[in-house]
Specification:
The complex is a heterodimer of chains A (about 400) and B (about 475).
Chain A: H1 5-10, E1 22-23, E2 28-29, H2 32-37, H3 44-56, H4 64-71, H5 78-82, H6 90-104, H7 110-122, E3 143-144, E4 152-155, H8 158-162, H9 167-179, E5 184-186, H10 196-200, H11 204-221, E6 225-228, H12 231-240, E7 251-254, H13 255-264, E8 277-280, H14 294-301, E9 307-309, H15 327-330, H16 332-348, E10 353-356, H17 359-372, E11 377-380, H18 381-386
Parallel strand pairs in A: 3-5, 4-5, 4-6, 6-7, 8-9, 8-10, 10-11
Antiparallel strand pairs in A: 1-2
Chain B: H1 3-17, E1 22-23, H2 26-32, E2 46-48, H3 53-66, E3 70-73, E4 90-93, E5 100-104, E6 109-112, H4 118-128, E7 132-133, H5 145-150, H6 158-161, E8 168-174, E9 180-184, E10 214-221, E11 223-224, E12 228-237, H7 239-252, E13 257-262, H8 264-268, E14 286-295, H9 298-315, E15 321-324, E16 346-350, E17 353-355, H10 360-373, E18 380-385, E19 390-400, H11 404-424, E20 427-428, H12 433-442, H13 445-458
Parallel strand pairs in B: 2-4, 3-4
Antiparallel strand pairs in B: 1-2, 5-6, 6-10, 7-11, 8-9, 8-10, 12-14, 12-15, 13-14, 16-19, 17-19, 17-20, 18-19
The chains are: A alpha/beta (about 400), B alpha+beta (about 475).
Chain lengths: ~400, ~475
């Protein structure tokens, strides 16, 4: 078994001090698997030690318990945020390396095998027919970038494309862009997964394939911008694609960045009141990964009649929704438990709606509400903003 | 442990606490088999997380019947290998028991369970009782209020208030044989106000490293939080003048905290190190001394500061002391608990001792020689306790656990540091098993015999963290 450098170099650097377990200065739990399962192996420090154990030969990737601890992590980076010992990002890099090692050794989680098979067959991780990918955009009259030029491409992503219950996020985003006069097009059925989930579960080969494909497609389109509503997809474009040896000739913006910009330029005007009390959930890939905290809040603050209240664990101290890095697929009950913890926190603010800016968060919160019965509405930020025009 | 026996015991443990709170999974056992120190790992057979006193009782009764060792655990950050299960058995992870049992604002104490951490306490006080404070240690927020006190830990108020074991009002303990006992005023009164005036049975549990029972509640004292604070950090020259300053200013008890470290760590810790090896260039012995004054009025603050400054002037010759501009002080002393560990190499160990501060200077000379001999960064923590009636002398080592040569040098350093500190009359606290062995070898034979008798009386089957005080690993 080849032990990757990240594991070799950083696995021994964890002092097991436990700071990773809770948000520093809030002293509130930060690690979903640690908080749920409690045993040391589930916390970030436990995973660093797993790396050490694999190096020593004391642990094996063929052990299902080892795999479970490695893969119940949503890679939310709360541990990295808290850790005062290691330079930022190294904990999640070690966890990613452990997953790459697992995949290299053929030690695969069945649910993740299905995701990869789906990618190879249908260019998405949700095992949906490729031919249905563009259905969310029916009736919107959008340009098809495979045959026409558009200045801005909207990349819907797998979750938004195939989940009719949350199509509103994409359709309302488009409506807002169109109101601002943006020349926007989509790839429709020809859109492919960003490949980020494959990376997160340890399959570098599949990720690279999709990254190269998307870079070639969007570079060749002549578009100046690619806009995404999915925080995971956004982060994968921004942070993972540079790892691929290909240039990116377009700017990538999350919809919150672009809407915020358009609002401040006066190209989107909110004229209707939206008398709601809402709280905002910072998606991990938008917040901790990319430092985007203010644009969504500026958008919400600019909506007439809307009251925004913050959860105590917010911004860089946001509790994860539970869906990321293959957890929702492989450990659905745990994913829902994690989401419900967040929903309870949202309800405690007195808000009647939880707003977020990632379809994975939105889907997981919606599923958790169905599972646990809490009474709170869930919206994507574009849906809330659309109400104001 | 044989697999069949293990399965049988596991089933019984699951019946007591629920299957989700018992683990025999190798990645979990591995995590509990070691800590940040150089002490060799030993694997437990089970990790069990009780949620109540009754569950703790059930586990201990089972352990006694089956003769299975039990090691109480909260965060494992004791820097002494104290929760490494030397003889396998059950690691009793108490983090689920994390409640506040009672908060008495008038009489200023809080009764908490083992899993209640310094982070929890800080949050609790900040949110609900911002006028009250605790002697927080320089420890991560994940560590346990109870364990810190039981292991004779200290906090930032130690110069005035003493160690955190001094400031406890009572305990509730599950004895190794399963009975629940209250210690202190709470055994007779509804209030946990003091351990006096009753015979102080708390001594059967403080400092015993979990070897005499499982403490399930502890009452700790709270102190006024003073609005006004002034920190002054000095860089000083010379072992003698620095130690004299610490001892003189400490005796006056106007500083809530006075602590010193050799100066070298300040130089290297700005950037994360990748190796513990450090070859010290020749130069004067210099120290970083941190002082903290707390007050309720500006007049009080000014008065204390004036006295402090007079002592600084009198104890140091011209050019031998520099005041560090506040913006250059790298560690925010106000933010305690602290983030992470003092070093960032993964391995941390120390020969932490208490001893006569009159020997600080001499011990420092010898310790510096040891650090240099083994090519390690000179880190020693000095803090007086209780108006300098005694003090902490704590050589600390950060090291890369992945570097076998470094680990070997650290082990040799620790062996020599033990001999040096014991010869000087210092006594190690949070002592690893091999340090305990040496102390029991050197110690008063009647003291050793009394330790054995107490251990045998309370823990007849030697199930509680065996290999420590009263029942050595070799026995």
């Amino acid at each position: 078994m080849e032990v990757l450098d990240e594991v070799k170099n950083w696995g021994v650097r964890c002092a097991q001090c436990g700071v990773c377990n809770a948000f520093y200065t809030l002293y509130l739990p930060s690690c979903p698997p640690g908080q749920k399962f409690q045993f040391e192996g589930y916390f970030a420090s436990g995973k660093m030690l797993i790396g050490r154990g694999l190096q020593e030969g004391a642990l094996s990737l063929e052990d299902e318990d080892v795999l479970e601890r490695i893969y119940t992590c949503t890679a939310c980076r709360a541990c990295d945020e808290n850790c005062g010992g290691l330079p930022k990002e190294h904990i999640v890099e070690v966890i990613e390396a452990l997953r790459q090692m697992a995949v290299s050794e053929g030690c695969l989680i069945p649910a993740h095998t299905l995701m990869i098979d789906s990618l190879r067959k249908n260019d998405n991780v949700l095992d949906k027919p490729k031919a249905e990918r563009g259905a969310w955009a029916e009736g919107l009259g959008l340009k098809d970038i495979t045959t026409e030029k558009a200045d801005v491409i909207y990349h819907a992503g797998c979750m938004l494309s195939f989940d009719p219950e949350i199509w509103g996020a994409a359709r309302d985003a488009i409506a807002l862009l169109q109101q601002a006069g943006v020349d926007v097009g989509i790839a429709g059925n020809e859109e492919a997964c960003c490949g980020g989930r494959a990376y997160e579960i340890g399959n570098l080969g599949e990720f690279t394939k999709y990254a190269e494909h998307n870079l070639e497609t969007y570079n060749g389109s002549g578009a100046s911008k690619v806009i995404v509503s999915c925080s995971d997809g956004y982060s994968h474009f921004k942070l993972l694609y540079p790892k691929v040896n290909a240039k990116m000739n377009f700017e990538v913006l999350h919809i919150v960045e672009y809407l915020d910009q358009l609002i401040k330029e006066g190209r989107i005007k909110f004229t209707k009141k939206v008398p709601m009390k809402v709280t905002y959930h910072d998606p991990c890939h938008l917040g901790r990964y990319n430092g985007i905290y203010d644009p969504p809040r500026d958008i919400l603050h600019s909506i007439p009649g809307l009251e925004l209240v913050e959860m105590e664990r917010s911004r860089e101290y946001s509790w994860c929704c539970g869906a990321g890095a293959g957890v929702k697929e492989a450990y659905p009950d745990f994913a829902l438990w994690t989401a419900n913890e967040r929903i309870k926190e949202a309800k405690a603010t007195g808000a009647t709606a939880l707003v977020t800016s990632c379809p994975w968060c939105e889907r997981n919160f919606t599923d958790a509400i169905k599972e646990y019965g809490e009474k709170i509405e869930v919206y994507d930020i574009a849906e809330i903003a659309r109400k104001a025009i | 442990m044989e697999l069949k026996v293990k399965e049988k015991v596991s089933a019984k443990l699951e019946k007591i606490v629920g299957a989700e709170h018992v683990s025999t999974a190798l990645p979990d056992l591995y995590g509990y088999s070691q800590d940040m120190t150089e002490n060799e790992p030993h694997w437990p057979d089970f990790v069990v997380m009780p949620g109540s006193v009754e569950e703790v009782q059930g586990i201990l009764r089972l352990a006694n019947r089956e003769k299975i060792p039990v090691v109480p655990f909260t965060a494992g950050a004791n820097i002494g290998g104290l929760t490494i299960p030397l003889k396998g058995g059950i690691v009793l992870d108490l983090r689920r028991m994390n409640r506040v049992i009672e908060f008495n604002e008038e009489d200023r104490y809080i009764v908490v369970e083992p899993g209640f951490t310094f982070g929890d306490l800080r949050r609790y006080l900040d949110k609900n009782y911002p006028h009250l404070w605790y002697s927080f240690p320089a420890a991560p927020p994940s560590t346990s209020v109870m364990s810190n006190a039981l292991l004779m830990g200290c906090g930032y108020l130690m110069n005035v208030q003493g160690g955190n074991w001094d400031n406890t009002n009572g305990l509730e303990v599950v004895l190794p044989t399963g009975e629940v006992v209250k210690i202190g005023s709470c055994s007779v009164s509804p209030y946990w106000f003091s351990r006096a005036p009753l015979p102080d049975l708390a001594g059967l549990f403080f400092g015993w490293q979990g070897g005499t029972g499982v403490v399930t509640k502890i009452a700790v004292q709270l102190w006024p939080r003073h609005e006004l604070q002034e920190r002054k950090t000095l860089i000083t020259s010379g072992i003698g003048p620095t130690m004299n300053f610490m001892r003189r200013i400490g005796k006056m008890r106007i500083l809530d905290l006075v602590a010193a470290f050799p100066f070298e760590p300040s130089l290297v810790m700005a950037e994360p190190r990748t190796a513990g090896t450090f070859d010290r260039p020749p130069g004067e012995d210099m120290f970083t001394v941190t002082t903290l004054i707390m007050a309720d009025t500006e007049d009080e603050l000014k008065a204390k500061a004036a006295v402090r400054d007079v002592v600084i002037k009198e104890e140091f010759e011209e050019g031998k002391v520099t005041v560090v501009p506040p913006e250059m002080v790298p560690v925010e002393m106000g933010e305690i608990p602290i983030r992470g560990t003092i070093e960032r190499l993964g391995g941390v160990t120390w020969m932490g001792t208490f001893g006569p501060t009159s020997k600080w200077a001499e011990a420092t000379e010898k310790a510096f020689q040891l650090f240099d001999k083994y090519r390690l960064l000179r880190i020693i923590a000095y803090t007086p306790l209780r108006g300098v009636h005694f003090g902490m002398f704590r050589p600390i080592v950060g090291f890369n656990k992945g570097d076998a040569d470094e680990v070997e040098r650290v082990k040799k350093f620790m062996q020599e540091a033990l001999v040096m500190t014991l010869d000087m009359g210092f006594v190690p606290y949070k002592a690893p098993y091999w340090v305990v062995e040496e102390m029991m070898r050197r110690g008063d034979p009647n003291w050793v015999e009394l330790l054995r008798r107490v251990k045998k009386m309370l823990d007849p089957n030697n199930i509680m963290n065996p290999g420590r005080y009263g029942a050595l690993r070799s026995e």
